[in-house]
Amino acid sequence: MHSIPIKDQIKEQKNKVKLGSPKIEIIAPCIINDGIIALNSDEQTRLIALFDECQKDLLFFIPASGSGSRMFDFLLSSDKDLENDPKVKLFLDNLCQFAFFDEQNKLLYDKWLKGHIKSKDLIQEVLGGDRGGFLKSPKGLIPFHQIDKVSLNAFQEHLLQGINLQTKVKYHFTIQESFKEEFLGSLRELNNLFKHDYEVEFSFQDQETDSFAFDQSFNLIKTDKEALLRRPAGHGALIENLVLLEDQYVLVKNIDNIQHLNRSDTSNDIWKLLCSILFEVKSKLRAIYINPQFEILQEFNKVYHLFTGQQLDTCHDAKSIKALLEKPLRVCGMVHNEGKAGGGPFFVRTEEGGVTKQIIEAVQVSQDKGQREQLELSTHFNPVMMVLDLFDFNDNKYDLKFFRNDDNYFVVNKKFEGKDISFIELPGLWNGAMYDWNTIFVEIPISTFTPVKTVLDLLGENHQPEQ
Question: What is the pLDDT at residue 1?
Answer without folding.
Answer: 46
